[in-house]
Design the sequence.
């Protein structure tokens, strides 16, 4: 059994870090407490089995949307047995459980929103791909229709030229008969 005093730096106050620390400590059967310090750091006193303390330290090295641990200073000493459980120390004027619950809910909301945006982005990518395919089909159809119109126009022109030629021939024959 060991005791460690940790000083945690980063974005660790007013972010739900202490309540997360309590949950991790309780899961690992760590005893001690966690408290905010006036300089913006968080102080943790933790006692437990060596391996559990190391897992605890790894577990509290949190980096997410609300909490960002930038540094952990460790000071090991002998186990004293001063603590029966792990708890959060609250300063005067602090809200406690309701704020922690709100922070947890906010984290969940951020996760839902981020994953929702990822799904929207994926769907947008699919829609853009389908729009591109549709535009390619429209371009191909336009080319085919234009080609068909030109071909029909050429056929029609050839047919009209042939008919005009026949009419001119017939008119020439009629004129020849009338003049005779």
Sequence:
């Amino acid at each position: 059994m060991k005791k460690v005093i940790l000083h945690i730096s980063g974005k660790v106050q007013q972010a739900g870090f202490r309540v997360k620390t309590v949950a991790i400590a309780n899961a690992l059967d760590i005893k001690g407490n966690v408290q905010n310090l006036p300089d913006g750091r968080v102080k943790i006193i933790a006692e437990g089995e060596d391996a559990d303390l190391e897992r605890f330290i790894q577990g509290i090295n949190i980096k997410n949307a609300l909490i960002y641990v930038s540094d952990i200073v460790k000071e090991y000493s002998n186990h004293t047995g001063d603590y029966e459980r792990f708890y959060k120390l609250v300063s005067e004027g602090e809200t406690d459980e309701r704020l922690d619950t709100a922070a947890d809910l906010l984290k969940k909301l951020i996760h839902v929103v981020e994953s929702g945006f990822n799904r929207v982005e994926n769907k947008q990518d699919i829609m853009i791909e389908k729009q591109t395919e549709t535009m390619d089909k429209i371009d191909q159809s336009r080319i085919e229709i234009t080609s068909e119109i030109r071909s029909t126009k050429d056929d029609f022109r050839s047919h009209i030229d042939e008919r005009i030629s026949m009419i001119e021939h017939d008119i020439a024959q009629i004129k020849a008969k009338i003049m005779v």
In short: Residues 95-180 form one domain. The two ends are 135 Å apart (CA to CA). The chain has a mean pLDDT of 88.
